[in-house]
Amino acid sequence: MFSPQGPSLRELAVQALSSVEHGYDLLAPKFDRTPFRTSDVLLDATADALRPLGPFGSGLDVCCGTGAGMRVLEPLCQGRTTGVDFSAGMLAQAHASHPEVEWVQADVRSLPFTEAFDLAVTFGALGHFLPAERPALFAGVYRALRPGGLLAFPIGGPPPITSFWYWALLGFDAAMRVRNAVWRPPFVMYYRTCPLQAMRDDLTAAGFTVTTPPLTGLGPRKDGAPRYRLVLARKPS
């Protein structure tokens, strides 16, 4: 499915009926050949937007998966780079691609770092956290950053109600809620639980100063709104 080297429909079904951790362990060897991997276009646009704010010292990729975020961190960070994820399978793939990086297996809702990083990023992972779990996630990132440190991540604009994607994402989230109501263990992945204002509110409550400039490198939508914004959450100096 997606490509000849990607997962089959049966493999995706088995993953979807597993826990989040075990599902990603199963998907890890073929993850980079699916649309779930953050695109290089989005990674490069993020790096371009962050470059004028650097250089940075050490960098952290939160929910690093197979390590795609190192395309952003390694050129921007002069110190060590670290990725953290709870899936051993994803980390094994990340280590194979980037053996020079420090890879840490941990639950990112209780990150094991204190004032260790200057830049933290995350890509495509926030839908794996229920809204009630985000305060612990953002508090852990806040603790992991040095004073003046920055958390950055892109967030897509909401599709208009008349678009195909509005209804596709609504249908996916509805199907996921039904799946989690009738099947255990749950697989938490929702596309509509991370609106921009909710992200701003949760980050501000964690102590960050938040700005959300448009990612101009990706251009506007047909209605003139930005396709993506870059959330920049700064820990006070």
Task: Based on the model shown, name its key terms.
237 residues; Class I SAM-dependent methyltransferase; methyltransferase activity; transferase
- Unreliable spans: none
CATH topology of the domain at 39-158 and 195-234: Rossmann fold
User: Based on the structure given, which CATH architecture of the domain at 39-158 and 195-234 is correct?
Assistant: 3-Layer(aba) Sandwich
What structural category do the secondary elements indicate? alpha/beta
Task: Give an account of the 3D structure.
- The longest helix is centred in the last third of the chain and has 19 residues, at 164-182.
- This protein has a domain at 39-158 and 195-234: Vaccinia Virus protein VP39 (Rossmann fold, 3-Layer(aba) Sandwich).
- Helix 1 packs antiparallel against helix 2 and helix 3 (40-50) runs parallel beside helix 4 (70-76).
- It has helices spanning 9-16, 20-27, 40-50, 70-76, 88-97, 134-144, 164-182, 196-205, and strands at residues 59-62, 81-85, 102-105, 117-121, 145-156, 209-211, 228-234.
- It has a 7-stranded mixed sheet with strand order 3-2-1-4-5-7-6, sandwiched between helices.
- It is an alpha/beta fold.
- It starts with 8 loop residues before the first helix and ends with a strand.
- Helix 4 (70-76) links the parallel strand 1 (59-62) and strand 2 (81-85).
